[in-house]
């Protein structure tokens, strides 16, 4: 389904450019000097290329951040689980809280593209917090408690960062700019080929294919938690 909108973008760009090419060709027959020179096409297409490049840079940086956050969250869970195992502190309450957290995160928040916090995850965090408080009252050495609290804080920070990445990825304004400049570039290509309509249609077709495929590839990575290229939490064995 994700492919169809970009096929539509390519088709609309081509026919829009071809339609304006026909209009410009008729005007050029009456007054050739009324059409822009060929160098003018670089003004708009450069703006299009820059906006596409900035969008691509934003997409890649968000995906890199999502991968980093997922690794940090997984690492924090593994460290806490290692402390809670029978051969360590043997804390069933902490292990149950971590398992509940992992299950709720994977089955609820990640399935919702990490767009909003879920009560089940908040409850699991509270269970972990209570388990840590109980351990602190059991007479464990302070350095062990301090390390576990630090791991727990890092777990919460990683989750907050994950949710922030999910919410930030839905901003569509940058895509509106790229789409506008895509359509405008097709029109400009038609304008500078007004004296050569056949060559102009070929140029518009090549541009439409290039633009639609480029946007489609970027869209596959637009939300780091959705699609075939999505970031996953990975195997956090608890």
TrEMBL record:
Transmembrane feature ranges: 6-25, 37-57, 173-192, 204-222
The protein, known as: DUF4239 domain-containing protein
Pfam families reported for this sequence: Bestrophin-like
Keyword Transmembrane helix appears in the UniProt entry: yes
Organism: Aminobacter aganoensis
Keywords for this protein: Membrane, Transmembrane, Transmembrane helix
InterPro entries: DUF4239
């Amino acid at each position: 389904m994700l492919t169809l909108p970009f096929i539509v973008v390519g088709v609309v760009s081509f026919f829009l450019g071809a339609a304006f090419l026909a209009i410009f060709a008729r005007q050029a027959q009456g007054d050739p000097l009324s059409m822009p020179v060929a160098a003018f096409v670089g003004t708009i297409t450069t703006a299009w290329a820059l906006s596409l490049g900035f969008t691509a840079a934003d997409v890649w940086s968000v995906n890199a951040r999502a991968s980093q956050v997922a690794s940090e969250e997984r690492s924090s869970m593994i460290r806490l689980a290692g402390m809670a195992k029978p051969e360590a502190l043997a804390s069933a309450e902490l292990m149950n809280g971590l398992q509940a957290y992992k299950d709720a995160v994977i089955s609820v928040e990640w399935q919702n593209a990490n767009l909003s916090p879920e009560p089940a995850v908040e409850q699991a965090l509270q269970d972990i917090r209570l388990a840590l408080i109980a351990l602190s009252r059991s007479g464990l050495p302070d350095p062990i408690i301090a390390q576990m609290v630090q791991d727990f804080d890092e777990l919460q920070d990683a989750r907050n960062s994950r949710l922030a990445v999910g919410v930030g990825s839905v901003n569509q304004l940058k895509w509106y700019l790229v789409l506008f400049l895509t359509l405008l570039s097709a029109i400009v290509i038609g304008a500078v080929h007004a004296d050569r309509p056949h060559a102009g249609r070929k140029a518009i077709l090549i541009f439409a294919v290039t633009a639609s495929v480029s946007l489609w590839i970027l869209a596959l990575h637009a939300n780091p938690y959705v699609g075939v290229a999505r970031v996953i939490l990975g195997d956090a064995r608890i």
